[in-house]
Amino acid sequence: MKEWLEILLIEDPAIRMxxxxxxxxxxxxxxxxxxxxxxxxxxxxxTSKTETDLDDRIVGVLEKSVQRIIxxxxxxxxxxxxxxxxxxxxxxxxxGAFFVVMVIFxxxxxxxxxxxxxxxYVNVIAVRTQSxxxxxxxxxxxRVANMLLYSIGLVICLDHFHIDxxxxxxxxxxxxxxxxxxxxxxxxxxxAGFVIMVDRPFRAGDRIRILSSQQTGDVIKVGxxxxxxxxxxxxxxxxxxxxxxxxxxxxFSYPEVASRLRIEVGVAYGTDIEKAKxxxxxxxxxxxxxxxxPKPTAFLLGFGDSSVNLAVVARVQHYREVFDTSDAVRVKxxxxxxxxxxxxxFPQRVVHIKNQSASG
Length: 360
Prior knowledge:
Shape: elongated
Strand content: 5-15%
Number of domains: 3
Helix content: 55-70%
Number of strands: 8
């Protein structure tokens, strides 16, 4: 460039630098147009023929960003040429402003690529899966990636202006440690939520019971921090994920929605046990909600103080039918036992009164 300008007999260094700056700006504009044309050709001849539209979206981001990045880069280089001649603060500020704008545009480029990749994943891949991991983690990954990208851009800008970032990094480290310590429960819940969504001990719509609290209900949503459960009073109960992962859980919906029905009843001593067991089995079979396989079965559980304890076990089609079916079966058992003269015993106590003669 210098030799070329000397050929043009531009001997004044200031004018030479200005001409160089102008040439750089013009060259940057021309190069940006050439790159824009190349991107258009790539989009027309290559990406348009692929099955996925991810490459089209990425090329669209490049088309918007690369041209202005090249133009700003040319302005930044040109400002550096001007600064070599004019050493005033305005030239230094101009150089710094173009550098910051260039870093912002580059950061926006990578942020845009992350955005289109995440959106493509949600619209194309995540909709095909039954897991909620995608729906919960994709927005989080996008936010974390943007925070990381803009943090890197900030550090680059500070370093350009010769600002010592060591103290800042140390402060951020101490601050992050303090925040992590203060939010350890929240972080524990988020980690537990991630484990729940990956391990999938239950899904949205499943009916579960947490044994420690005996909380029973239908899972509405598994979030990163808490799980929402709809209880039988039609109230939403939000349980921290860390509490769930530490406890034993009964999933009534897995591996199948069919659930066991168990009814215990006591009959008087002297009752024909086989007859009573047959009545229990026949009553269960009379309900269409009760599955024929496995067959309903009656058992003699033991001998109580006042009764012989029996139980009938059957399986209903859906766990949501257990309560209503159990109620109907109990009512019919009561009627059938009364009809066949089977007695429900009452607790009995024998009291012995010991007479003691008064001593004279």
